[in-house]
Amino acid sequence: MRKQVLHITAFTLLFIMILSVGASAATIEAAEPLTNNYIILNSASISAESGKVTVTFSITGTGTMTTIGASTIKIYTASGTLVKTYYSQYGYNLMKYSGSVTYSGTSGTKYYAVVKFYAANSSGSGTATYTTGTVTA
To answer: pTM, whole model, 2 decimals?
Structure first.
């Protein structure tokens, strides 16, 4: 029954997020519900404007987490060359955490991001990884 409630909650949150995201030709949004016993929902988006690439992420834990967020956010060119890594984008003693990073890219270059999510409490920890789509800076 608890699992069913978590699934309903995850899909409800996903539906709300989809409805609240503004449409943008240069933004790609995604969410993955219930990835493990610590993460109910994780989402990431990538957008670009005038050479600037922004990666936004959100993670929801199964309860209050001692640490929750993104352990790494890696930005790559479309050909797979790593151009920037951001570390330790965390919140503490929270159930949900959101953040963003901005990279000064090269106009006309295509980029994507890989976000590694992390959530931990006194019982243990869980991770999830999400790869965004590609945008042109």
So the answer is: 0.75
